[in-house]
Amino acid sequence: MLRRNQRFLTQIYVLCDAAGMLAAYLLAWWIKFESGWMPGMKALPFSSYMFWGLTYAILAIFIGYYGGLYKPRRRTRFSTDVWKLGQVHLLGFVGLLSLLYFAKQIHLSREFLGIFLALNLAVLVIYRFAVKMMLFRLRRKGFNKKYLLILGAGSVGRNFYKSLLQYPELGYEVFGFLDDNLKEHPPTGYPMPPILGGLDRLDEILRKHMIDEVIVALPLAAHGKLAKIIETCDNAGAKTLIIPDYFDLLPARPYFDNFAGIPLINVRDIPLDEFGNRLLKRAFDIVFSIAAIIVTSPVMLFAAIGIKLTSPGPVIFKQERMGLDRRTFIMYKFRTMRVSDRKTADTTWTVENDPRRTKFGAFLRRTSIDELPQFFNVLKGDMSVVGPRPERPYFVEQFKDEIPKYMVKHHVRPGITGWAQTNGLRGDTSIRERISHDLYYLENWSFMFDLKIIILTILRGFVNRNAY
Predict the structure, then answer these.
(1) Per-residue model confidence (pLDDT) at position 350
(2) C-beta atoms surrounding 456 within 10 Å
């Protein structure tokens, strides 16, 4: 029954959100004015506060409804839900402040508003998490199911079904397969839903059975059949989702672009292609790097003195690296090795117990202090605080032919730290795994993701056991 009443569930969500917001509003009122925990007098009566609380609830629900907060979110991750919730309510809060300004309500307590914002987000996140966990448990037990029909019993269709088995909490059940060329599945090692016949049975099955979504997993050779399949599904009221036969070539989140009125799949669209995202990241890089240089200046002074006292040569080691758009730049590090010729430095991989390394240099490398001058690279615009680590051109030429998609990381500025590094992939570790993490970062970039990586870098420490 539940799966046929999404509109009813949406209404329940709206009512629960409104109740949660009002509860947070009343709790904020009690904390500020009734608990005795905070000084201050009520400049406005309770009725005025209640009026603006109801106004905020209506405003936030309106923004959430048109912002997609109440769309079916069965397939979305909880972190995505929280991010959307935060966006909606921060925008709603800005709207409330604007209304208060135009209404000249200057006596509404600012402390009260701050408490309300924090409580509101906490209440809504906790209650939505509880609802999501409850739905997960119900779906695992067989309630609130959605039924799928897969067109195509080849490798694409079977792989989709195998992946679906790993997410029982989503509540999807495959009714069966349709395929013109196969009558039964080859051995798979796990039970498979039956092949119910050819594609000509699609209309019959959709009429006789309650199928919510049809997954088209046909090869490119079946392109001519898609129009008829989509028409049949539309007439039966079933949703159609198409898995392209070349899906393994696409990023995790393919982006549909429009060129001259024709829809196109942008194979390598990344969030940092957008001007606003680039501007936000660059502004953060400048502010953070200036702060980092000021805070770490005593450490850098200590490193410079130590290098001068323990080995002859310059304090700063300059090395060519490949960065944004495959352009090279000069990266700065504290010198940790004895001075050698440029060819050796540019073409030799550092190994454990490297004889070129000085004792003080080994300490700098293990503690990552040698990386601190790269904050000046960030200020210059050659690097970012967070991003894929840059490599020497000599090794780039090798890796680009050996490692699939290696060059994709040069679509963004290289970073001092990155998603790969926070997952332990530093120094002498797998290049393939690093690239896999770098691609994930590119395709899933957000400002909050950058902050997460910085926090993880700090919490997990700067000591690197793989830094030779």
Answers:
(1) 66
(2) 14
Q: How far is CA 353 from CA 187, 350, 357, in A?
A: 51, 9, 8
- The pair of structure tokens assigned to 412 is 């963004």
Q: Count CB neighbours of 110 within 10 A.
A: 9
Flag whether pLDDT at 442 surpasses 70: yes
Which one has a higher pLDDT value, 116 or 39?
Answer: 116
E strand intervals along 76-168: 146-151
pLDDT above 50 (res 3): no
The bridge status of strand 255-259 relative to strand 262-266 is antiparallel
Question: Residue holding tokens 């079933």?
Answer: 238
- Reply yes or no on whether the pLDDT at 90 is more than 70: yes
Q: Quick one: how far is CA 271 from the chain centroid?
A: 10
Could you report the per-residue pLDDT of 367-386, keeping only the tens digit for each? 889 999 999 999 999 999 99
Stretch (H or E) spanning 256: strand 255-259
Strands 316-322 and 328-334 come out as: antiparallel
Q: How far apart are CA 354 and CA 367, in angstroms?
A: 17
Over the chain, what is the mean pLDDT? 83
Which residue ranges make up each domain of the chain? Answer: 2-140, 146-249, 273-459
Please name the fold of domain 146-249.
Answer: Rossmann fold (3.40.50)
Query: By mean pLDDT, which of 64-78, 89-103, 392-406, 430-444 is the weakest?
Result: 64-78
Highest mean pLDDT among 15-19, 349-353, 369-373: 369-373
DSSP-derived letter for residue 221 is G
What residues does 330 pair with on adjacent strands? 320
Helix (H) or strand (E) holding 353: none
Q: CA 414, CA 330: separation in Å to the nearest integer?
A: 12
Closest CA to 238 of 215, 213, 216: 213
Sign of CA dihedral 336, 341, 345, 350: negative
Counted residue by residue, the chain has a size of 468
Specify the 3-state DSSP secondary structure of 241: strand
CA atoms of 204 and 184, how far apart (whole Å)? 20
